[in-house]
Design brief:
With 105 residues, the chain is an all-alpha fold. Helices cover 56% and strands 0% of the residues. The radius of gyration is 24 Å and the shape is globular. The N and C termini lie far apart (59 Å). The mean pLDDT is 83.
Amino acid sequence: MKFAPLAALGLALAAVTAPAAALAQDTATPAPAPAFTIDTPIETLMADERAKAVVTANFNGQDITLHPAYEQFKSLSLKALAPFSQGLITEDMLAKIAAGLAEIK
């Protein structure tokens, strides 16, 4: 039986790695990622009433879905759109939106 030593080696390796896998599962479960971030596509944010309210509040109540170029930028995230916004989307605004989106569960 030429394969008996290989089978024994396989069983030995399984016995060594099984406890490590069990230990990895026992570690604390990481906190779930926020549902929305400033990296989420704008069209996804606008599809959720809670996220839309956060974004709209930070745009002085203006609904960005009504912007004439919405179809062109809706697949971008707010973070990606900011450099092209001619200063309309500031770092401070992104921070406020990020904080508001993080509160959505």
